[in-house]
């Protein structure tokens, strides 16, 4: 969390994260090429480099896509999510190198401009599998470029969290395009079914993790839907909210995080202003609600970040009816101070 | 405190031990899985060609320039055979030889080039300014064309330059765009024969009257095709003379 822009706000964890990823990618590339040369003496080193770059980028994209749902299903995966943007940039760089190699090898030095030829040089050969595979890769690379170029918090702040998030959801489109690129290209050239099986496992894995995470959220939302009265929704029992943690409830189609802190109970929008992280899966650190994704902080009673930061999330008024906590459906304007709801007695709930 | 109770904040230098341990193990596991997948993909590659390309080695060659049926150099046989060898000629990049070189047809020439070879077929990627008249002795004893009758073959149309060794693999779907560009640029099309029981494995494609069919072959490149035509031999070079309208998509 920083209030000024730097190219990268390096810290110990980011350095370790990137070093680990870079070493992993280097091992992948070297291993792929060396293994290819060792297994078949006819193998061509330049083709192996081209394929190693493409395969590494494709595999890394699956890792990037898996981290989000994994972290939602099990918070122990959160350290992998912290610097995920750098993995995304690395995926783009691998894709770019693959693209440049392919352009130089297959589309340059001919009678047609290489950039024109890569998009329109191959006529459809009939049927779905006869579609040219290169345009899928080119469009995916453009999407990955847009995401890598706007991955910095500068763009997040200037585009706005919602627009930024929508733009970066395009990663799923890029993934689908790359699956088509691989299926219509590389998989059409090999007689072994190993590659097709691996691609299939990747598709099922990414979709399965997202469905599982979505299903879990849906179950939690359903479980928290309560009665409505006077604009308030019956959310939970006060004892269900652990100290320094939150209970996430669905209120009017939106998720609200009810935190228990030293002053009592406070309710905030569950969406972090930074990247839409689930604030309710965070905890109170130094008196502030702290997002589990990147550690952005908000004061629980007014939803504003402590100075010098200026992020703000909506707050909701709370009402206590017996031991039941009711949340006002309508959010308060950004920055509105809502006094914490004092609750007598100790909570008994365990963190969830 | 277990990892569930711990809370990870990335910008804090110290993480709780259980969180660090889990993250480390997970990251190692992910890298191991990624390396395993890389090995799987690397091992699943099976379609490598057997051609060669002496990239970076430029030789000076002398012989008789022949403009047809495809541009080639009639050259003293490197194996000492009495009849001349015929080495195909192409330009640099994805280009055949310029049409202007036809003025050297039948003349003794010298040229610089890089060798490409697959099986009994050799090709020269001509470097620099191309052939120049050469007063040296021209080889003699070139063989006359021989007809081998009608053949129906199944295979894939490729560009001869990549197939013979410049690209590896110089065939199949991922090479289709490149082969198309090469053939458009004048590199002779060739069919890589799959059912080669009584036919050489690589046949240069010409029209029924021996004319070039580059443009007519373009739609069929890198697809499984069935071709019917007359098989001809000119030294090491083998040709299939066919009517391009008779090319059919082949399905097993």
How does this model look, in words?
The complex is a heterodimer of chains A (352) and B (252). Chain A has helices at residues 12-39, 45-73, 78-82, 84-107, 114-120, 134-149, 153-159, 161-168, 171-184, 194-224; strands at 228-229, 232-237, 246-251, 254-261, 264-269, 283-285, 288-290, 297-298, 315-316, 318-321, 324-328. Chain A has 352 residues and is an alpha+beta fold. In chain A, the strands form three sheets. In chain A, strands 1-2-11-10 form a four-stranded antiparallel beta sheet, with no helix packed on it. Chain A has a four-stranded antiparallel beta sheet with strand order 3-4-5-9. In chain A, a hairpin with a 2-residue loop joins β6 (283-285) and β7. In chain A, α1 packs across α2 (45-73). Chain A is elongated, with a radius of gyration of 24 Å. Chain A starts with 11 loop residues before the first helix and ends in a 24-residue tail after the last strand. In chain B, the strands form two sheets. A five-stranded mixed barrel of chain B has the order 2-3-4-6-5. A five-stranded mixed β-barrel of chain B has the order 8-9-10-12-11. Chain B has two domains: 52-133, OB fold (Dihydrolipoamide Acetyltransferase, E2P) (Beta Barrel); 146-249, OB fold (Dihydrolipoamide Acetyltransferase, E2P), CATH 2.40.50. The mean pLDDT of chain B is 91. Chain B has helices at residues 17-43, 160-166, 176-184, 214-217, and strands at residues 52-53, 59-66, 72-75, 85-90, 108-118, 121-126, 132-133, 146-159, 189-193, 202-207, 224-234, 237-242, 248-249. Helix content of chain B is 19%, strand content 33%. The longest helix of chain B is centred in the first third of the chain and has 27 residues, at 17-43. By secondary structure, chain B is an alpha+beta fold. Chain B is built from four helices and 13 strands. Classes of the chains: A alpha+beta (352), B alpha+beta (252).
